[in-house]
What does this fold into?
Amino acid sequence: MKAVVYKGPRDVVVNNVPDAKIEKPTDVLVKITTTNICGSDLHMYEGRTSVEKGKIFGHENLGVVIEAGTAVERVKVGDRVCLPFNISCGYCENCERGLTGFCLTANPGNAGAAYGYAGMGPYNGGQAELLRVPYADFNCLVLPPGAEEKENDYVMLSDIFPTGYHATRLAGLQPGDSVVIYGAGPVGLMAAMSARIQGASKIMVVDTHKDRLALAEKIGAIPIDDTDQSGVDQILTHTDGHGADCGCECVGYQCCNRAGHEVPNLTMNNLVASVKATGGIGVVGVFMPEDPGAVDELAKKGQLAFNFGEFFTKGQRIGTGQCNVKLYNRNLAKLIAAGKANPSMIVSHELPLDQAADGYANFDARKDGWTKVVLKPGK
Ligand SMILES: NC(=O)c1ccc[n+]([C@@H]2O[C@H](COP(=O)([O-])OP(=O)(O)OC[C@H]3O[C@@H](n4cnc5c(N)ncnc54)[C@H](O)[C@@H]3O)[C@@H](O)[C@H]2O)c1
Ligand SMILES: [Zn+2]
Ligand SMILES: [Zn+2]
It folds into this structure.
């Protein structure tokens, strides 16, 4: 089969590799029809993780089941399925509580497994023609009839739509609340859409990229361009000096100042400054336990110079971590089916798998107009 293989920093190629296959009776084999490039892939692409050369990337996957293991009972050959990026068993202590992003079975010795990702277990990704799906009865979201026409919407259920939603839940958003979202990448835009769905009164999205801010505005958010003027000051102006009721971090450890230089503590300290006293902060942007390629000594050790005193004095709360996709994907799918959510509106480029390297280079450069890339292995 053809697959997107990591060769080294800023170097991915589409190679012929051995076909993915059923390895355990609880697996299914999926023929991938849509698979996205994610901001999380860029951390690996840029050489800022420990991912091994030869890894097949791709954790935002949708396709059709073409073979089922002998122990699979619910999922059938021919089902069109969207796969949560988390691989989870369904029966461990964390999965039982719905915390499938922290499964204790799928990546022994760690909490959490994923397709094609650094440190998330031996699983290959789905930027390929075929994908092996473990614990298939638990992990597959079987899509309704007609899903093919909204495939670019449904594929967002694999990660960014639930992840954006998770950011708002970690932040404790309530109907009527104002919310500030740092990052207008795909995740931040999905957090904005999720906040709208939940009845936020004011949604403010901070970034420097005009194409991304334009999408935020289309979603119903106030775009906050902090290229020339402090984003924090603008949020305070929009909230009578008090700060937003809650806030979301949708950037992660490679966050930058307006000159494009990495400042690892920037978004976290900006959140403390622009969320009101007692407000909640949801952090889904990825932070790493170590980052040898970081710009400062603290960040190399996975540490931040965090304004903890201000955070404490304001009585704020923080929730963090990988999204438990299965907590949300079934209900968010119903919103897509009902026409009440259209996450595909952020897709800028639909490419055949063969053009994946081009897609990576442009999305990584945050080139104007490259807001979300979906790959179509069958085309
Ligand atoms: N927790 C999870 O489950 C989960 C799932 C998916 C993605 N992620 C993470 O979410 C983050 C965002 O993903 P994405 O796909 O949207 O990536 P992306 O890189 O396309 O978007 C990040 C955006 O943040 C902006 N940005 C950079 N510095 C900023 C700053 N100081 N203030 C405001 N905006 C700033 C960039 O201009 C960019 O538009 C990444 O860290 C990714 O790994 C986490
Ligand atoms: Zn992703
Ligand atoms: Zn589990």
Summary: The pocket of nicotinamide-adenine-dinucleotide (ligand 1) is lined by residues 38-40, 42-43, 159-160, 163, 182-188, 206-209, 212, 250-252, 255-256, 266-267, 284-286, 322-323, 366 (CB under 6 Å).
